[in-house]
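@channel sequence for tomorrow's demo:
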Amino acid sequence: MGNTGPAELLAIWEAGLAHHGPGRALLLHRAARPETAADELLSLPVGEREADLYALRRTLFGERMQIRAECGACGEAMEFDLDARDLGVRPGEQDGPLRVEEGEWTVEFRLPTVADLEAAARAVAEAGGRLGANGNVGANTNVGADSGVGANGDSASDSYGGDAEREPTTAARARRALLARCIVSVHRSGRPVPADRLPAAELPEPVQRRLAEAAERADPAADVTLNVACPECGEATRAELDIASYLWAELDHWARDLLLDVHLLATAYGWSEPQILALSPLRRRYYLELCADG
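structure tokens (generated this afternoon):
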């Protein structure tokens, strides 16, 4: 995970304040893989990045995640804890493109990369869709995936993970944009179909569904979707866990609390920020208690 001490994390947080969405996700990913160039990070499968961010989150904040979502049936706010130890499974090595056969159709495609996801997000944003904090667009990241419920948050006022929100139109645009970028070849009844003659949206729904299933099996961490039963009405809501957004919200909350601690200790003792950050969390808390008692 590289050097993720308080000073380094504050620098990441400060840099992230000037960015939104994909920019913040890239900063977090670089913190998880400081030895990897930005271009290489963008070329990784989406699930590889998500696995890195889950690992970084466990290192910084532990294995328990507090999730908030909204019931899709009755609108009730739901809060629950999640054990994240089993999340962030890395995709296996792929020997060539994935292949799906359905009826008269044969489609070969590759897994979406982080760059693919960002390009699709930009395309949807330009068309009026909402851009999520990690470069998502309120939709599942797997090619051809069914529309789900986003769980994105993008500010300090959001709960970790944010609120769930349904955006079927935006989700459909995102799936088409991703699919168009990731298709390698299409054959119909054994005959090749040129990509410019077959918009991704015109692939039959069963083919798109099979593409989604194949992508999910090959890269499960790219789309962590929870089925949450509402305690009020009992209906289940699908909520997509956006780890980049979630982790940024936690980092933002941590940084603001730490800067308040620095302010209080600097005022009381005259110490510099580097001196205060060099203290262990336990010693900082003890000095703060002494300030409160004094």
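heads up for whoever presents: Confidence is low (pLDDT under 50) at residues 131-140, 145-168.
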